[in-house]
Amino acid sequence: MNRFRIDMAYNGKNFSGFQIQPNKRTIQEEIEKVLSFLLKENVKIYASGRTDAGVSALCQVAHFDTEKEIIEKKLLDSLNALLPNDISILKVESVSGEFDARFSAKKKTYRYHFYISKYSHPIFDEYATRIYDYADVNLMQEACKYFIGTFDFKSFVSKKSGKTDFVRTVYDAKIISLENGIYAFEITGNGFLYNMVRIIFGTLTQVGYGKIKPQDVVKIIDGQDRSLSGRTMPSKALMLKNVDYN
Question: Taking the model in full, what pTM does it have?
């Protein structure tokens, strides 16, 4: 059996998430369908994690096993020729059988894009969330540091999660300024809970609006109560930036 790693990018706008779901369009199903057609066998892919409906990826990682001998460049070209335009395969690479896209991952980095304006912007609204023009980015930046560390993030997970272990480690969290007035909340951790990044950013907006103080983040984490944190922000602005295996 041969194992291969594939790196991919996708626009999640018209997908119901990464994982296969009945009667819904998903990234996993689109890729498996094309892989199975090309390799003439039933192929299953296993990703570093599941992105939700509407969430995009600059670089998602998955692996699959096959009995076939593969020329990586040829498969890469064939996949991109047959996949829909909102999915692109960036790399196909032969790996050892010990590599697991999910369990070998050490860190993941997500970006949540936003802009600050009194009025909506029709172009920015495609991939970023607008927050009101009185938001203080400096206060949001200050609040970011309180998320860094190993904590029980029960206050920042959707009730639909189904998880019982809410402990995660955040290695870095910050607000960065991009081009044309776009900002991004960037967060790196060993793993993330269902809607965790979107809820954390919702909490940061409350800080930016002056409704809570940056140091109140500590109380929210310690409270382990979803009702204490901010709202779940829209999925359209969230992107999986990269997965680190080193």
Answer: 0.93
